[in-house]
Structure to design on (295 residues):
């Protein structure tokens, strides 16, 4: 079984729970405040390692207590942290507002995640991997360099294009597997709906998996919809990290040489478990829980 290398962000999540979103200018009393490990990169690394993969993480934290906590989270879960650098900077944070219906809004301050480096030690880690997993919370120049190098080494590249932004055509073209949500897919393609977006993007990335939340997912290849992934209805309490769980579990199954269809079923099961729990990394299921849900 191959190794997964995740190049991405590590953030301390600052979570405020509230009955609803406040109106502009309104002060609203929340119900709870908590902190936890997060960042799309860290989340996907933990989701993959809990799903049974051998995982290494490339990223950066600051010299503060948040950085120490994030490193400890990775190590405790068994992720190789040898390329998690500690920089003279603040650790990245994400301010997350979660309403009673489980929906969230997120504001990110990148901090150390803005580090521009991709050096020889990082290259050595990627060279020995089966899959490279990236997101958009690191500088685009770093992502492009890493993905291009991975392609040259025959390493499968997986991109979650979030936080969504335009002007990442080169990253899409370097993606073997592109995993946007519905809104991201429409933004990147200019298409009016998820299906049209998936078809358009699949003319550039080899495989496109558009996640649809409670409606499952669509898979497109070479300009055609090739699979529709059924949802697993659950009562969600917190959707934070659900998409990252989906990606991490999917990649863990692919690295274990399961076909894509089985990997997507496992990913859907994993995400359906995660949304029934509070938090991001803390909500992600273990492999035996995913297998039990698939039974």
């Amino acid at each position: 079984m191959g190794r997964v290398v995740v190049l991405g962000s590590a953030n301390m999540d600052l979570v405020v729970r509230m009955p609803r979103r406040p109106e502009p200018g309104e002060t609203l009393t929340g119900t709870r405040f908590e902190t936890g490990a997060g960042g799309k990169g860290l989340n996907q690394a933990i989701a993959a390692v809990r799903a049974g993969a051998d995982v290494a993480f490339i990223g950066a934290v600051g010299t503060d207590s948040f950085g120490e906590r994030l490193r400890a989270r990775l190590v405790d879960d068994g992720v190789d942290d040898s390329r998690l650098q500690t920089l003279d900077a603040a650790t990245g944070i994400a301010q997350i507002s979660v309403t009673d219906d489980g929906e969230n809004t997120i504001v990110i301050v990148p901090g150390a995640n803005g580090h521009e480096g991709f050096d020889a030690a990082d290259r050595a880690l990627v060279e020995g991997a089966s899959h490279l997993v990236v997101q958009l919370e690191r500088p685009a120049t770093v992502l492009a360099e890493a993905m291009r190098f991975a392609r040259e080494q025959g390493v499968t590249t997986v991109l979650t294009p979030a936080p969504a932004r335009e002007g990442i055509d080169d990253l899409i073209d370097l993606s073997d597997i592109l995993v946007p949500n519905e809104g991201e897919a429409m933004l990147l393609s200019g298409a009016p709906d998820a299906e049209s977006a998936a078809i358009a993007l699949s003319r550039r990335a080899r495989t496109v998996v558009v996640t649809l939340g409670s409606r499952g997912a669509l898979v497109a290849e070479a300009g055609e919809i090739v699979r529709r992934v059924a949802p697993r209805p659950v009562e969600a309490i917190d959707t934070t990290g659900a998409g990252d769980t989906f990606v991490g579990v999917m990649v863990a199954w692919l690295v274990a040489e399961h076909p894509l269809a089985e990997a997507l079923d496992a990913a859907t099961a994993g995400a359906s478990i995660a949304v029934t729990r509070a938090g991001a990394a803390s909500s992600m299921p273990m492999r035996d829980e995913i297998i039990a849900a698939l039974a």
Observations:
- The mean pLDDT is 96.
- Residues 3-10+39-91+114-294 form a domain with the UDP-N-acetylmuramoyl-L-alanine:D-glutamate ligase fold (CATH 3.40.1190.20).
- The radius of gyration is 18 Å.
